[in-house]
Amino acid sequence: MGSTSMERRWVFPIVVTSLVFLFLLATSFNVGLVSSLRTINSLFSPSRATANQTNPNPNFVESQVGRTPSPPAGSSIPRFAYLVSGSKGDLEKLWRTLKALYHPLNQYVVHLDLESPPQERLELASRVEKDPLFAAVGNVHMITKANMVTYRGPTMVANTLHACAILLKQNKEWDWFINLSASDYPLVTQDDLIYTFKDLRRDLNFIEHTSKLGWKEGQRAMPLIVDPGLYLSQKSDIFPVSPKRSLPTAFKLFTGSAWMILSRPFVEYLIMGWDNLPRTLLMYYTNFVSSPEGYFHTVICNVPEFVPTTMNHDMHYISWDTPPKQHPHILTLNDTAKMVDSNAAFARKFKLNDPVLDWIDRELLHRRNGSFTPGGWCAGSPGCARVGDPRKLKPGEGAQRLRRLIERLILTTQLGQQCK
């Protein structure tokens, strides 16, 4: 009995002590939890609202983990990250476009798809590796494991996202991503482009878009297709499958140009995907005809955060039929006046070594004998043999033309014309 009484006397203090300890532990944990939640909430943004619904509870939000803030306009010299892609027979066109675009502050990814002969891809890799300037600066990267790309299928979207991921991994010190093909060519120097974009907000996205699908609703949105480039090593065109599908109600469809200038915040959103929308739409557009002309546009116009950043222009001069066909006109010397009057930064499509390219080199870029386009960074002899001061800019008439185009786009944006 004495032993039992002794045990009972110890039980009560132990229980009380345990309860006090648990209470203090829970209080400490809750204070820390509240503090942590307040810190984490500062990294969050309101949840995406679709066209047909709003978020009923603003406390449930998606994290923006991994997002890098953009510097304010005018705070530093902007930098561009390029994807220049080509296919079979495009080696020389791609090489010429790359040298015309080059600036030591930019980043470049070049890609010849799997349809290109191995000899062409090896030659491109050799040129990139052996070029003294590229080797010294280290800002030109080649996708050596080539992707199969079908223009009208999702493989082109996948290739673009692949390049975006590489550029984010290699160097995050860039402000805008630009996708071009080997059939594109610049109409302004990189000094013109950098100088003009220096005073712009770094979150702006230049992407031609519209929600008025017209004939595309029945011929592109509703049919289901399969892109053999997803599973075959030889290129073949997309083919239709049955049945057709209805138009979506969870998001609104947009369409536009496959060529664009995207801000780094939007590119990070596409790749990091703190909201699940980019992945959802990527699955939807896997079976969509000409998905490069819809995926990026539908993503950006269904995210309220990015809608105010859209500029409805692809910064290209392209000559189309009316109504447009699958491919635009091939540009020649007869189109020079229209190209200049467009005030655009780029133009397409060009044939290999067409005389119009020599005219652009001579009259607009002041580029000689297949060398780099001259700029304030050029030093050494012959011209641009080495990098001088990469932050020194020498803008020309191209900057004035480009500024006129952007001023018009900003005015249109102020009138509330985004994502209509």
Topology record:
Blueprint: H1 2-41, E1 44-45, E2 62-63, E3 80-86, H2 91-101, E4 107-112, H3 118-130, H4 132-137, E5 140-142, H5 154-170, E6 176-181, E7 185-186, H6 190-197, E8 205-206, E9 209-210, H7 216-221, E10 224-226, E11 239-241, E12 255-256, E13 261-263, H8 264-272, H9 277-284, H10 295-301, E14 310-311, E15 316-318, H11 336-341, E16 346-348, H12 355-365, E17 378-379, E18 386-387, H13 397-414
Parallel strand pairs: 3-4, 3-6, 4-5, 8-14, 15-16
Antiparallel strand pairs: 1-2, 6-13, 7-16, 9-12, 10-11, 17-18
Helix pairs in contact: 5-8, 6-13
Q: Would you kindly provide a brief summary of this structure?
A:
With 420 residues, the protein is an alpha/beta fold. It is 38% helix and 13% strand. It has helices at residues 2-41, 91-101, 118-130, 132-137, 154-170, 190-197, 216-221, 264-272, 277-284, 295-301, 336-341, 355-365, 397-414, and strands at residues 44-45, 62-63, 80-86, 107-112, 140-142, 176-181, 185-186, 205-206, 209-210, 224-226, 239-241, 255-256, 261-263, 310-311, 316-318, 346-348, 378-379, 386-387.
